[in-house]
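Sharing a chain and its predicted structure for anyone who wants a worked example. Both blocks are below, sequence first, tokens second.
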Amino acid sequence: MAYTSPSLNSLARSAWAAIRTYLPGSDAMPKKNTLVVMAKSWGLLLFDVYQRIEWTFRQIFASTADEDVLEKIHGYEENVLRKAARRASGTITGTADAGESFAAGVRFLRGSIGYVSTATATADGSGSITISVRAEVAGAAANLSAGDSLTLADPGSYLTLGTDFTVATGGVAGGTDREDVEDYRARILDKKRRPPQGGALSDYEQWAMEVPGVAAAWAARTVNSPGTVTIWILVDGRVNGIPTSDDIAAVQDYIDSLRRIGTDISVVAPVAQAVNITITGLTPNTASVRAAIADKLAALFAPDADGANPRGRMKPGTADANFILSRSWISEAISQATGEQRHALTAPSSDPSFAAGRYPVPGTITYA
């Protein structure tokens, strides 16, 4: 039951009524009366008290607590730590003198953000060189798309290395900001609703979600293989959330440090399966309506992490059950777009099914 503090005017009226009740012969209602001023003053004092009570009531529950209380009390007591920001990483390509090697530590710039090489890189016989880099600062702002350009920060120190570089396929990605407060709240509530059970599937999902950057996790036991658990994860900052081998290794190492002895755990990346959508008879068929539809469909294809961090409706298929994407969900999302008056969903013509490990991602939207 929600608690709402009374208004200042209501408290003043209560004080006026109390004066009339407990001081016979007095009347605090007429204007230009000392008792009127006293009652308003008491109401103002009580208003601060009730406001404090209302604030305290909100802090009792993780679902309504303010950010600082959520982190310092609810998260602390449930041993759910807020995930820190993560640095983006990837590869860039450029030129150098053939056969030249460059140790880790070479700096590159993209605007005001710096990137540093993380391993020794050697140019091939044609002078092409691929360098692994990582952002110097954590956060989503450091993510770069394939084809973006960077420049060598200190050309004078690397005379045999080119100055212009291009982000390779896959981008410089995986950078995430500090965990959003509502995502953090969702993990705390999930821990309360699904407390640790000594190796239940929910335990593995929650452990995976503790790793910075992990946006969703689903655990399932392998059919006819007792003691074997597969965990599919999605990662913020990656294309369609599909994790890289480094993402997988980080989560695998973390869960291996927590898992029960004798349990075989495999952290894997879902296989993206595109869902192409064809819309006919869109009214009005305008750029703004199409943009609104794209936004609604993107929200629909966000992951649903079994209640741990619900964002959308999508899940991968598991060993014991295929995931069925209802066409009605797609049509519903289109109908919710601002400005849309009518449409017909032509494709998919039936509910798409996703086998074990297959994960639905947005495909091409065609307007016929």
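Comments welcome. The chain has four domains: 8-60, 89-167, 194-268, 271-367.
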